[in-house]
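$ ./design --mode recover --in tokens.txt
reading tokens...
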């Protein structure tokens, strides 16, 4: 928001600069003894122009800020609707609800860097209506597990999945990133349910 206000202020200064530059010849003419009546008229015109320009700029800034505020409100409203199911999508919040509607499988496990893995899961909606997995960023809801039973939480970042929406009778592929993994992973735990890696993965 601070960056937006700063940009608006810069825009206001840039649009006023030409008007201020136009005032210099008028001022020099007045100093040189130009006709006082014409000088006063030019000054009045300049003041009027500045007032008009400034008023227009204020209106533009107000419209910009109003649009930003409206956009933020709509964005927050849409996000909340996704979380509480107000948009008509059936929510999945635990292992029982997941098993009743969605089949989950591990598609691939890719080692990105030292101790860093990306796991791709396939979510197949078996119902005739869309469903949405929620609470995936809550601790213990998504865990990577190695052969010795040690678990690892998802890495924080842009790939952190907050919600996953699956259309009716369709499938989606979703990546999950994990860091500081000390051993080769063998399964992933979702809502407390272990999903083993397929043989040969």
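writing sequence...
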């Amino acid at each position: 928001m601070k960056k937006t206000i700063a940009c608006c202020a810069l825009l206001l200064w840039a649009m006023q600069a030409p008007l201020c530059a136009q005032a210099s010849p008028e001022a020099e003419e007045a100093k040189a003894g130009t006709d006082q009546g014409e000088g006063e008229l030019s000054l009045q015109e300049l003041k009027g122009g500045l007032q008009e320009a400034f008023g227009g700029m204020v209106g533009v800034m107000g419209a910009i800020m109003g649009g930003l505020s409206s956009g933020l409100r709509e964005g927050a409203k849409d996000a909340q609707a996704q979380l509480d199911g107000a948009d008509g999508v059936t929510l999945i919040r635990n292992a029982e609800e997941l098993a009743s509607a969605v089949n989950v499988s591990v598609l691939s496990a890719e080692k990105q860097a030292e101790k860093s893995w990306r796991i791709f899961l396939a979510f197949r909606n078996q119902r005739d209506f869309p469903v949405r997995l929620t609470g995936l960023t809550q601790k213990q809801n998504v865990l990577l597990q190695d052969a010795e039973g040690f678990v690892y939480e998802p890495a924080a970042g842009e790939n952190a999945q907050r919600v996953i929406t699956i259309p009716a009778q369709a499938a989606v592929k979703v990546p999950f990133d994990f860091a500081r993994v000390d051993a080769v992973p063998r399964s992933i735990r979702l809502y407390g349910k272990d999903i083993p890696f397929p043989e040969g993965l």
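exit 0
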